[in-house]
Design brief:
The complex is a heterodimer of chains A (about 280) and B (about 280).
Chain A: E1 4-15, E2 18-30, E3 35-39, H1 46-54, E4 61-64, E5 67-70, E6 73-74, H2 80-86, E7 91-94, H3 98-101, H4 108-120, H5 124-137, H6 143-146, H7 156-168, E8 174-178, H8 186-203, E9 206-211, H9 214-220, E10 223-228, E11 231-237, H10 238-243, H11 248-255, H12 269-276
Parallel strand pairs in A: 3-9, 3-10, 7-8, 8-9
Antiparallel strand pairs in A: 1-2, 1-4, 1-5, 5-6, 10-11
Helix pairs in contact in A: 4-5, 5-7, 7-8, 11-12
Chain B: E1 4-17, E2 26-39, E3 43-47, H1 54-61, E4 69-74, E5 77-79, H2 81-84, H3 88-93, E6 94-97, H4 111-122, H5 127-140, H6 157-169, E7 175-179, H7 187-204, E8 207-212, H8 215-221, E9 224-229, E10 232-238, H9 239-244, H10 249-257, H11 263-274
Parallel strand pairs in B: 3-8, 3-9, 6-7, 7-8
Antiparallel strand pairs in B: 1-2, 1-4, 4-5, 9-10
Classes of the chains: A alpha/beta (about 280), B alpha/beta (about 280).
Amino acid sequence: MPLLEIRNLRVEFDTAKGPFRALDGVDYTVDAGEVLAIVGESGSGKSVAMLAVMGLLPDSATITADKMEFEGRDLRTLSPKAHRKVIGKEISMIFQEPIASLNPCFTVGFQLGETLKTHMGLKGKQVRERVIELLTAVGIPDPEGRISAFPHQMSGGQCQRVMIAMAIACSPKLLIADEPTTALDVTIQKQILDLLVKLQQESGMGLIMITHDMGVVAETADRVIVQYKGRKMEEADVLSLFESPQNPYTKALLSALPENATGDRLPTVGDFAEAGGF
Amino acid sequence: MSDVILKVCDVYRTYDLKGGMFKKASTLTAVKGVSFDVERGSTLAVVGESGCGKSTLARMLTMIDAQSSGSIEIDGLPIDISTTGISKEMRQKVQIVFQNPYGSLNPRQKIGHVLEEPLLLNTDMPAAERRDLALEMLDKVGLQPEHYGRYPHMFSGGQRQRIAIARAIMMKPKLLVLDEPVSALDLSVQAQILNLLADLQDEMGLTYVFISHDLSVVRYIADKVMVMYFGEVVEYGTRDEVFSNPQHDYTKTLFAATPRADIESIRKRLAAKAA
């Protein structure tokens, strides 16, 4: 049984001009211990799908799916209370802007502890000990001192480490990372990606990487889903995707990488759209 | 002698940090003794992580900020705005394109006005000519004449970056400073903008100072590469020199950290994982 199985997911938003379909019948499956990358440009619906799983979409969104199961439990029929127990504990998520994701009014230690108190029922000293343990696990220097630091006193890379610590605090079975390194420097990006992959391999959790960066895909993923305008273009394991992309859009995306440039001009997706008809 | 358009010699920029009740006043040196020159019609890429002083350098080149010491010369014209101020002539030499096309356009200004404003402020060109020039530039960056009367929110990120580029070339500058112009854009749009920049360089003989942290873009676009680290230049050379034989440790770290999307490295990673 796969960890997360979604069939024919559709998401529509009510807008002043009538309903807008952000996601049009896409299937996702993730197994435990697998790294799935969802790639696409802005507007491809890559984040929307995972926000739907987390129940984080606004009221204007209508979500329909033939199947939406996490470990055999139907996420669609779960009561809000039961759903809250799953998200944050068994499925957790990290976002693009680490500094904006943390509350500026509370210390890092308090925010981490909150997760532990809510989901794990830890109290007092236990919380502090576990927080220090988590901060050490994500490689924050001087964790005991950092526990009382506020987010603005830390760098972007460190804030993202704290977000990761928070996400793995309850040993989730599935971690969703939505563009976790887009706002970070290349050297820090490398550290964060290595950390995510290391944690994933140690704990055997499923990891979904949402990204638009083909480099990040190549460095982390086992399997890749390429999305464009709310539809799935291609799904393949990482090696065959880069070696022999089948879909014209994937081909276009790969040849638009500056490192693959052969001539003076970079081919753009538009050049392929006419020929490929997507 | 080669034709040097931008000459920067031993430039420093220090900022005074105010002290408080518990903190002594101190100075922060953002740029420490940077020297380089750029030939006409070529592209210099400046690489480095956040806080390394690359944007401070851009601000000094575009006369937003004055250097603390050292000399900057653009097209034979010495730039030192703290002593001489800025003349209209200096303004016409250099223009800048910023990273975030959502933040760099005034939401209440129509595109036509956005494009004409530099001319309005710096030249005596009559309105009809300004309008003609704005339409010409729209066409040059791949937009339509009907975009003239629209507002920024009606455009996508890539289109906005085209507008920002059009605004920058309205004054027919010699030098264009591009501060991370494609890092906020999608891969396919990034390719379009890079192509546009290459076309404009050929057509108008522009010189670019291209600030970026994305080494794959730098490798594609640059003639010369300068790597900055904590305000200092740690590596400076032609693209091939720097990429094939990096000297400084930081440059090597940077190259090692850049994600690789070639099949060989994916194979290696998967093999390492399986083991």
